[in-house]
Design goal:
With 70 residues, the protein is an alpha+beta fold. It is built from 2 helices and 6 strands, in the order ββαβββαβ.
């Protein structure tokens, strides 16, 4: 399922990054979004997500959250 469908304060394992936009995929890789990594949704507000990856918090929009499959 896409990360955007996930629950708050739940840790997921990233299965894949699915997007046709190479720059979006590269950006997610710079954040540490690799298959096999853990990601936690900290909060969700107005289509923006605060996520925790490798002890760092990032804000991503719904488009990026839809590209991360867990």
């Amino acid at each position: 399922m896409a990360l955007s469908k996930g629950s708050i304060n739940t840790t997921y394992i990233i299965e894949a990054i699915k997007t046709k936009h190479e720059d979006m995929k590269d950006f997610l890789f710079t954040l540490g979004c690799y298959p096999g990594e853990e990601v936690t949704i900290i909060s969700r507000l107005a289509g923006n997500y605060i996520i925790n990856i490798k002890d760092a918090r990032y804000s991503i929009d719904e488009g990026l959250a839809n590209a991360i499959f867990v």
